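Pilot study result, target chain (241 residues):
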Amino acid sequence: MSDETSRTRGAVTRGGALAKLGSLAAGVVGATAVSARGLLDAGDAEAAGSGPAGVAAGLVTCVLAPEQTEGPYYVDDAAVRRNVTEGRPGVTLNLRLTVVDASTCKPVRNAAVEIWHCDAAGAYSGVQGDAGMFLRGVQRTDAKGLGIFRTIYPGWYPGRTVHIHTMVHIGGNVVYTGQLYFPDVVTDAVYRRSPYNRRPNRDPRNAGDSIYRNGGKRSTLKLQRRGSAYLGSITMGVQRS
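Predicted structure:
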């Protein structure tokens, strides 16, 4: 069985790590690093000398971001694969999720990054009688700490703003559980397109979402439009143990 279709059972486990969710600030770095000149993205941090030397010199520090609830729709045994779309309609979203060590800002190789989210109609796979596994998957990070996914821009459902769930597993343990968010102005533009425009008047927006208000701003993807698609990126720093 190939890496693209193999399952993660036995490779990554949740092993008690979800108890950490009660401590919202435990062990997670946000999407950016900071320096005296303001916010840095991952590329800027590398140029500034990230890693132990950069941290020691004060050029780069890590910004703690809160963990967030796993939610009710987690399903074990997601496939290790880059393309999670399974033919679901929607605007293409390519994700670049980077994992770094919170104590050094160095990339973490071979971490298992897991994502899951609803489709354009607001439905999750694998729950409520649906046996599918669409829009769920796991990728191992490369030497730069990078995991890449091809998915679609998520839809919405009543009570929640637009989001993607994520977990990071290292050595078989869950070291981070969080959610990734989208700027409302970008979502507004995407939702004017099909198939999202079949479900107008989404509610709530980011500011009205109780989970987003508890740290979601620091978990918001940096988005770039690439033709008809979008590229979303973020750096997640974790405590390795």
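One observation from the pilot: Residues 1-51 have pLDDT under 50 and may be disordered. A full batch analysis is planned for the follow-on phase.
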